[in-house]
Design goal:
mainly alpha; two-stranded parallel ribbon; 3 domains; 465 residues; binds arginine; Fumarase C, Chain A, domain 2; elongated; Fumarase C, Chain B, domain 1; 5% strand; Ribonucleotide Reductase Protein R1, domain 1
Length: 465
């Protein structure tokens, strides 16, 4: 055996082998570059495992304390020096090797009754707890930014779109808050994934359970898990909690992408509803006038990998035979990438939203009087006309205005009367953007009071717990 990874492998499981690993196999086998992110979780789990072995009478109190002290020393070392270019196969073997350096012979007892199969499943669940917390906080940051932007848009009436065609007037705050509620659901989905991860697999061994009388309930409590897994086979192969986190991340990405798309459109010259701050815009190396919404485009572009990571994980899990399979090693790069991507995107997008400004002049200028068509129909309904007939009559009003090349308010009262006798002199009162918005006063609507209530709810949702 030479120095390097194959020597490490020999230390882990080399007893039955005559020859070291083939050179072409070595890099494929290594996972340290990815799973180094789990080093803290691996140490925390190992300390708890040492205590559990002590509780089971497998280790003496002295041995437990030597292992714990050694693992603290390993923790300090890794915190100080990092993993660097250590030659070990994975984070578990690295921690064990360093522990041997720190604690000596007793380190060789730590892996009693444990397998890397239940170990890595435990590490990952501990990681999900941390990552989920960070993600949730980052989502809250974006929600706060949307609250800030929304609070500047309560008095601004803008076109509300369906099919990207002007539909009905809405308050700009209503638009901004329309992007907040999906994020609240995303946050709940992240929390649910963290709760799913809160079931302890440690004590499941490689496949069949642990032959030493470990108190798994106490171990779960020690590590902050709320329950223990019921079946060792399921425990070592279950990655549902990761799939749940990656789904939450993918759907969050879809929501971010839609917000991003609105920002791209609304910051264009054609719309001009929103101005992104200089700090979140970029210029062109060629076209001096350019002010590009890269923050939004990059956000939109990152969604592909978030969806892709979920698809990759589901495909990875599909069709595996019962128990641990090495395929599962591929789960980590997907999960880490989703979380890293979101932790990159969310603060930047939050900053862009926080510093974005509505442009009331441009918004006002974009309002087309056809946005009032539904209000006109509702006007007739209030006079007792059945809605379907009112809809038909207003359709003819719109056509008449188009034929005359004018807006709806520019048609004469005679034109209106010719179309429907229930149109009266007061029909022109309909053409008030704010009144139109305020007529939609049911909860969830775009009236000033409904939006203010909504804003209060949104503020409550972003309060620190
Ligand atoms: N690196 C492995 C993983 O990430 C750890 C478990 C390895 N177990 C084994 N029996 N080879 O899944």
């Amino acid at each position: 055996m030479t120095d390097g990874p194959d020597e490490e492998a020999a230390a882990l499981w080399g007893g039955r082998f005559e020859r070291g690993m083939a050179p072409a196999m070595v890099p494929l086998n290594l996972s340290l570059d990815v799973d180094r992110a789990l080093w803290r979780h691996d140490i925390v789990g190992s300390r708890a495992w040492a205590r559990a072995l002590g509780g089971a009478g497998v280790l003496t109190a002295q041995e437990v304390s030597a292992l714990e002290v050694g693992l603290y020393a390993v923790e300090n070392r890794l915190a100080r020096d990092g993993v660097g270019d250590a030659p070990d196969e994975d984070i578990h073997s690295l921690v064990e090797r360093l522990l041997t350096e720190e604690a000596g012979e007793v380190a060789l007892k730590l892996h009693t009754g444990r397998s890397r199969n239940d170990q890595v499943a435990t590490d990952l669940r501990l990681w999900v707890r941390d990552a989920g917390g960070e993600l949730g906080a980052a989502v809250t940051g974006l929600m706060r930014a949307l609250v800030t932007l929304a609070s500047t848009g309560v008095e601004i009436v803008m076109p509300g779109y369906t099919h990207l065609q002007q539909g009905q007037p809405i308050r700009a705050a209503h638009w901004a808050l329309g992007h907040l509620w999906p994020l609240l659901r995303d946050r709940r989905r992240i929390e649910a994934a963290v709760a799913s991860a809160g079931v302890l697999p440690l004590g499941s061994g490689a496949v069949a359970g642990c032959p030493f009388p470990i108190d798994r309930q106490a171990l779960a409590a020690d590590l902050g898990f709320s329950a223990i897994t019921e079946n060792s086979l399921d425990a070592i192969s279950d990655r549902d909690f990761l799939a749940e986190l990656l789904f939450a991340g993918a759907l969050l990405g879809v929501h971010l992408s839609r917000l991003a798309e609105d920002l791209v459109l609304f910051s264009s010259i054609e719309f001009g509803f929103v101005r992104l701050d200089d700090g979140y815009s970029t210029g062109s190396s060629l076209m001096p006038q350019k002010r590009n919404p890269d923050v939004a485009e990059l956000t939109r572009g990152k969604t592909g990998r978030l969806v892709g990571n979920l698809m990759s994980l589901l495909t990875l899990l599909k069709g595996l035979p019962t128990g641990y399979n090495r395929d599962l090693q591929e789960d980590k790069s997907l999960a880490f990438d989703t979380v890293d991507t979101l932790l990159l995107v969310l603060p930047a997008l939050a900053g862009a939203v926080q510093t974005a400004r509505f442009r009331p002049d441009r918004i006002q200028g974009a309002l087309d009087t056809q946005l009032m068509a539904t209000d006109l129909a509702d006007y007739l309904v209030r006079k007792g006309v059945p809605f379907r007939r009112a809809h038909e009559a207003v359709g003819r009003v719109v056509k008449a205005a188009e034929d005359q090349g004018c807006g709806l308010p520019d048609l004469s009262i005679d034109d209106y009367r010719a179309i429907h006798p229930d149109f009266d002199d007061d029909v022109h009162d309909v053409f008030d953007w704010t009144r139109s918005a305020d007529s939609r006063a049911t909860p969830g609507g775009t009236s000033k009071s409904a939006v203010e209530t909504q804003l209060e709810g949104a503020r409550a949702a972003v309060q620190p717990a």
